[in-house]
């Protein structure tokens, strides 16, 4: 099998092409389940590389590609084997927000931006597919490799649909998966470095909506109305007691109201107020308690003030928790490929969410951070309108994907 230096040379040969592809994707962002042109670009590149793939996953824009290897090759020759693949995942969707960067490759689509680095993630996976396909022409890969190009991460709905459509079980292409790896651009980490941790790394994320129905009236005669705005204010305050008074201080949880809408005039009490928010937690038990209490508090506080509240939780994602054994593999591979100094511990979990967590409920998984900033540089945070994936991190990301796919220890 090739050395780290040989693999790096193959990655460097592809770097300029991958940079061009990344910037092309950045110019043409598409949001959740609308990634039609993005999917077409991915499939055109896989076709050019001669890699087998199936489209039509997760509502149509998801793509799963596969390169045979390991015992799977023996099975193709008639041997009785149970091959399982290493899966590598990239999310492909953009955000519904403006791009305020000043680069020549800034978004061409109003109200859409790759402000979370998914354009980079997509190209890293295409780069790994390119390098691994080249290697497979010379040496049998030690493992079959499955490439997951997933839509709709930002809505938290894409991964689950990919799994339901057979992306991990080999029913449509390739073989069943034995381990899954994914990564994310990390603005606070220096370029060329990676980081991760065993166990919880990212929080569960559940969005909710609250509709408060009261009775409208004139602002001068509030006693003749049932004021939903007053109830909304009380509910916002009461919700904060969940974390401050009901959750063990050693457990992490967040309840945040992010939007309140009600009324149009300065002298009219409206009949209805709507609110939106999110809950986050690192443990399933904490998540379940928080979500149940959000509903109970909204309903009870509203009733005590003479109005009613209806709470609707949207589909959410569980916490992203890295399998300890799979994390240990990641750490060993990363240190061998990049050097010890480039592999950092992620000391604490982060309360952001990721639907990569769904893959970890099906197969052992590890998610890791890919550095973006240069030394002593302040890099824009994720979801900021000036965020732009750092092309200098392409080689590190592709190398990591390749080495994880080739690891057979």
Domain tally: 2
Query: From the helix content, strand content and strand pairing, which structural class follows?
Result: alpha/beta
Percent of residues in helices: 25-40%
Gross geometry: elongated
Description of the molecule:
The chain folds into two domains: 4-203 and 319-406, Zn peptidases (Aminopeptidase, 3-Layer(aba) Sandwich); 204-313, Alpha-Beta Plaits (2-Layer Sandwich), CATH 3.30.70.360. The protein has helices at residues 4-27, 36-49, 71-76, 118-136, 158-164, 228-246, 284-304, 324-338, 357-360, 394-406, and strands at residues 52-57, 62-67, 85-91, 145-150, 177-190, 194-196, 199-202, 204-213, 217-218, 253-261, 268-269, 272-281, 308-313, 320-322, 343-345, 365-373. Helix content is 35%, strand content 24%. The protein is α/β, with parallel strands linked by helices. The strands form four sheets. An eight-stranded mixed beta sheet has the order 1-2-4-3-5-16-6-15, with helices on both faces.
């Amino acid at each position: 099998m090739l050395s780290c230096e040989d693999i790096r040379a193959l990655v460097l040969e592809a770097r300029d092409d991958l940079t061009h592809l990344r910037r092309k994707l950045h110019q043409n962002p598409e949001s959740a389940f609308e990634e039609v042109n993005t999917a077409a670009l991915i499939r055109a590149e896989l076709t050019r590389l001669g890699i087998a793939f199936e489209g039509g996953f997760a509502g149509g824009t998801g793509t799963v590609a596969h390169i045979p290897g390991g015992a799977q090759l023996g099975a193709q020759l008639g041997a009785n084997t149970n091959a399982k693949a290493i899966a590598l995942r990239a999310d492909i969707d953009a955000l519904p927000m403006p791009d305020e960067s000043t680069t020549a490759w800034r978004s061409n689509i109003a109200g859409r931006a790759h402000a979370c680095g998914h354009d980079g993630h997509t190209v890293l996976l295409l780069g790994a597919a390119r390098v691994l396909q080249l290697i497979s022409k010379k040496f049998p890969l030690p493992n079959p490799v499955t490439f997951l190009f997933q839509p709709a991460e930002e809505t938290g709905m894409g991964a689950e649909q990919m799994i339901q459509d057979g992306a991990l079980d080999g029913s449509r292409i390739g073989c069943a998966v034995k381990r899954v790896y994914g990564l994310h651009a990390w603005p606070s980490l220096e370029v060329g470095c990676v980081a991760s941790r065993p166990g919880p790394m990212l929080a569960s994320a559940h969005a909710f909506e609250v509709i408060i129905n009261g009775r409208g009236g004139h602002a001068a005669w509030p006693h003749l109305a049932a004021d939903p705005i007053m109830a909304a204010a009380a509910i916002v305050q009461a919700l904060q007691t969940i974390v401050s008074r009901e959750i063990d201080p050693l457990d992490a949880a967040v309840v945040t109201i992010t939007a309140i809408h009600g009324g149009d005039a300065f002298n009219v009490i409206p009949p209805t107020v709507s609110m939106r928010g999110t809950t986050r937690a690192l443990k399933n038990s904490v998540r379940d308690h928080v979500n149940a209490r959000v509903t109970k508090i909204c309903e009870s506080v509203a009733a005590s003030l003479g109005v009613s509240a209806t709470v609707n939780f949207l589909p959410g994602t569980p916490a992203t928790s890295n399998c300890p054994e799979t994390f240990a593999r990641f750490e060993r591979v990363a240190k061998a490929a990049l050097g010890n100094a480039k592999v950092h511990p992620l000391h604490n979990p982060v309360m952001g969410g990721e639907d990569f967590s769904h893959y970890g409920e099906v197969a052992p998984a590890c998610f890791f951070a890919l550095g973006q900033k240069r030394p002593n540089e302040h890099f824009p945070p994720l979801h900021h309108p000036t965020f732009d994936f750092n092309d200098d991190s392409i080689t590190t990301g592709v190398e990591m994907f390749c080495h994880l796919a080739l690891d057979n220890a």
